[in-house]
């Protein structure tokens, strides 16, 4: 999020290029399986897998967020 906040200082053409690369790269990585990274499977789950690696259900996660805030 900090990196994305820094985008406001870049020229508009560079922001557009960054956005296109992010969207296209995300779609290109859909077919990659976490198991193909061997011992770094956990890193792939955090960076790309999203909520799959969080060991809570939605009610517990919401409660945890309220507690933190």
Mean pLDDT score: 75
Series of secondary-structure elements, N-terminal to C-terminal: HHHH
Radius of gyration (Å): 16 Å
Structural class by SSE content: mainly alpha
Beta-strand content estimate: under 5%
Describe this structure in words.
- The protein has 69 residues and is mostly helical.
- The chain folds into two domains: 31 residues, no CATH class; 37 residues, no CATH class.
- Helix content is 57%, strand content 0%.
- It contains four helices and no strands.
- It is elongated.
- The two termini are 18 Å apart.
Please outline the helices and strands.
Elements: H1 2-5, H2 12-28, H3 41-47, H4 58-68
Descriptive keywords:
69 residues; 2 domains; 4 helices
Give the gist of this structure.
The protein has about 70 residues and is mostly helical. The chain has helices spanning about 1-5, 10-30, 40-45, 60-69.
